[in-house]
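A further point concerns the way the authors explain their paired sequence and structure data. Showing the layout once, in full, would remove most of the difficulty. For illustration, here is how one protein appears when written out as sequence plus structure tokens:
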Amino acid sequence: MILDWSTQCYKIHKTRNLSRDDPSDNKSIFSQEAHYIKFLSLKGLSYRDIYFQWAKIKNGMAAVFKDEPEQMVATFARVYKSSLNVSEKVFKQHYTPVKLYKSEIKFLNSIEAPIWVRQYWLVMLIYWKFASQHTKNVEINGTLCNWALRQTDICNKRFGRHQDEIAQYNRTEDGYILSTGIAKKKNGRIYWFDWLKENNNGEIVEVKNLDNLKKALKLIVENKQTCPVCGKQFAFGGKCKRLMCGIAGNLFYAGKVKKMANFDCALRCNSFNFSFCLFGFCNDFCFSRYRLCSCFCWLAA
């Protein structure tokens, strides 16, 4: 996503390259070239001079039609016409780095949801902090949501495939993680975070721009739960119903046990606190560090 168009256009002018690292709509070739042409127009360049500057872009539409002069001129005319609709305000908006605080990260890590969902909320929070520097109402749309999801660790980056799942985790007993509403001045939707505090202490990391969020995303960690069998911590997602770690679970299913409910009940009532097997069944079946209950042995037998 591009927020600081003035800095972006300076980069294009210096490197003669468009940003191609993200397929978001506002980073499309056409959009970047329209903003760049507007940027040059504000510098006082003539139509002819802007054309020659535009033609120097190495990975833009000029490079595609470099062997077709007539098509190249027609393409420039179309982009130039589009640049007339670009507001001058976007070149006057400069953004300062934003800060993430311990309380914010702690809250996101406390939510029982998959790590990629919490990463999605963190990206939306970072964008909101940048955008709110110049507007009270930060708009939310498909472009923003798709971009935010692409920054996470999830394999399938299509927001439409995960929209319902994100909405399911978004609602909690205390309200919403990410709240949305209808913009008053124009037909659109805005979003905000009700749980944010005005006075925060304990800064963790400073985010300078939206180009690289890897350092910030590392702050979101897997949810941990203690295995009642071996006492070790294991990661679990928002929909995970496991009561034990993977190794203990494999031992359990190795016995081809069908009455899972009985075993869950035994774990909950702490009947696993025996240091040895009452029936002698587990001596050769499991590692000595596991404290398996007599109920487990009976079911596995």
About this structure: Confidence is low (pLDDT under 50) at residues 256-301. The chain has three domains: 5-91, 98-217, 224-300. Residues 5-91 form one domain. The longest helix spans residues 115-131.
